[in-house]
Amino acid sequence: MERLLEFLARSLVDNPDEIKVTMAEEDGAQVLELHVAEDDAGQLIGRRGRTITALRTVMRACGAANDRRVLVDLVD
Length: 76
Hints:
Helix content is about 45%, strand content about 25%. With about 80 residues, it is an alpha+beta fold. It has one domain: GMP Synthetase, Chain A, domain 3 (2-Layer Sandwich). A hairpin with a 2-residue loop joins strand 1 (about 20-25) and strand 2. The longest helix is centred in the last third of the chain and has 16 residues, at about 50-65. It is globular and about 35 Å long. About 15% of the residues are buried.
């Protein structure tokens, strides 16, 4: 799941080399922290948060297929 999120995020930003995904466990959920350059945060958020919402939906569906709860946090 980490590689999927990294792949999707890299295709959306101007500085793909600065994308880093870290995983943590919190309250029984798998939290994926997406680290991006400050300039790219706006591109990942998108208009009215639509892009980050779509990324979170895809990752939640991927987690549901594996019986896991997945959360995505954007860290800039």
